[in-house]
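Take a record:
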Amino acid sequence: MTDWDTVTPAGPVPKEALAFWRGKGLSPSFSYRDVWREEHRKAFSAAGAMRLDLIKDLRDSLEQALEEGQTFREWSRDIKPVLEEHGWLGKDVKVKDPETGRERTIEVNPRRLAVIYETNMRVARAVGQYERVQRTKDVTPYFEYNLGPSARHRPEHAAVEGTILPVDDDFWSAHLPPNGYGCKCWVRAISESSAESKGGQTEVPVHGPADEGWDFNPGAG
């Protein structure tokens, strides 16, 4: 089990990550499938958040967390009173699909908030890293795939640990981490000599670490 109180940002925020975040619009979503794959590049959403004022408050709070390097504990402390005012906190939050009229009940608990926080922090930072590496790829032309600090790793993610490929290889267009909710995998930009010391470029990488809906690179395009 994850101790959600220990979820923290991964170091200083890159300016590219902030630029990516500030360029996002707002998108209501009844289900996590309502905003899919590349749509996340342009729009911020949280499954079950249907009102624009709620989504804007969530988005603005996450921008502040990204900019100030807030931990999950700090962010959740500040956002909970806001969510209470919106009626979007607790075990019996009612949401209605505007297209079908179908209503369902969701639970907005610390675990759900941690997923929202960690997913958006990691994606924004991954975009920032990807954009920076595009400017320095003459020096560090390869990415190396690494597993994160999770106690247990998804077999599909573990299967590509150590993969070394050029930063512009098609592999990264579908497999640049994070590759799923709760994924802590990461890539390191390495030099030609470092790649050679690790055995060189991976010849036949195993495709398939990305979970459903995560097989895209938010930093590309």
